[in-house]
Amino acid sequence: MNTRCAACKYLRRRCPSDCIFSPYFPPHDPQRFASIHRIYGASNVARMLQQLPVNQRAATVDCLYYEAQCRVQDPVCGCVGVISLLYQEIHNAETKLAKTKAQIALFVDSNSAREDFEVESDLNVLLHEEGNEFAHLGPSNQVSFGFT
Amino acid sequence: MASSSSYNSPCAACKFLRRKCMPGCIFAPYFPPEEPQKFANVHKIFGASNVTKMLNELLPHQREDAVNSLAYEAEARVRDPVYGCVGAISFLQRQVQRLQKELDTANADLMRYACNEIPTALPVPPDMAATSVQPMAASHQRPVGSFYQPPATGGFSLPYNSLPWNDNPSAGGGGEGGI
């Protein structure tokens, strides 16, 4: 059984045994080659593939297909439109992150101010209690603390 | 836009193709002679006839943007013959995912601070009332752990999620699955 690859079917030619397209354009997916051919042309794709090692060609064709589909869907911007959207998403996310971190900083500042207030309050309570403890000692009953 | 044919100087495209640059040359407005590499790249990747066909299918006011995006894609593919623009897209999508994770973490931290404010709030002395902090509005919060879906182009899945543009050197080259 000698089935032509999708590229040779599209180009209406015989599919040789060493066809450069056949590993990457199986006959059951004609749309794949049609999209790539529409944007890049068969000879350009063949030349690109020939200039690459065999182990990189499958990835190349996948990426060419993705870009061709983007261009078919958006003839003006192609996949550059996707890149622009992503840059915008990054900018939006960075802005939101900065705002959220600023709000967290407000909480942190507020907590540290409250902790300072608590420490001061505790100290005041402690000093007040100590004062009560020694309040029964009138001036004549004061134990000498070393001050005469 | 350059109109080099009006100056009797061929546009970059006609120079490259070694032909006379006629008035009304479809390439002339977009490929000025001062930028020869722009057309060279576009020609190498797309070919002159494909570009002509694409431009003819567009309205005149769309052509400049189309040529610039084609030039961008062509340059990306000249620099990286395997992944082209897809490499940049993959890298940017990972950046978006990383930022979204950071945002989710930050939102979770903020919620914790806000929740801790309520049960432990002490009676505020009159002179400190002006400095009380309002908790973040609920509309700004995203569900913790939600996964950001990058913009898709008509449902096409990105062929490669793990590309050389891995901004996390400690991670492997794969294992993230498809988009």
Automatic annotation (TrEMBL), chain A:
<dbReference type="InterPro" id="IPR004883">
    <property type="entry name" value="LOB"/>
</dbReference>
<protein>
    <recommendedName>
        <fullName>LOB domain-containing protein</fullName>
    </recommendedName>
</protein>
<comment type="similarity">
    <text>Belongs to the LOB domain-containing protein family.</text>
</comment>
<dbReference type="Pfam" id="PF03195">
    <property type="entry name" value="LOB"/>
</dbReference>
<feature type="domain" description="LOB">
    <location>
        <begin position="3"/>
        <end position="104"/>
    </location>
</feature>
UniProtKB/TrEMBL annotation, chain B:
<feature type="domain" description="LOB">
    <location>
        <begin position="9"/>
        <end position="110"/>
    </location>
</feature>
<dbReference type="InterPro" id="IPR004883">
    <property type="entry name" value="LOB"/>
</dbReference>
<keyword id="KW-0175">Coiled coil</keyword>
<protein>
    <recommendedName>
        <fullName>LOB domain-containing protein</fullName>
    </recommendedName>
</protein>
<dbReference type="Pfam" id="PF03195">
    <property type="entry name" value="LOB"/>
</dbReference>
<feature type="coiled-coil region">
    <location>
        <begin position="89"/>
        <end position="116"/>
    </location>
</feature>
<comment type="similarity">
    <text>Belongs to the LOB domain-containing protein family.</text>
</comment>
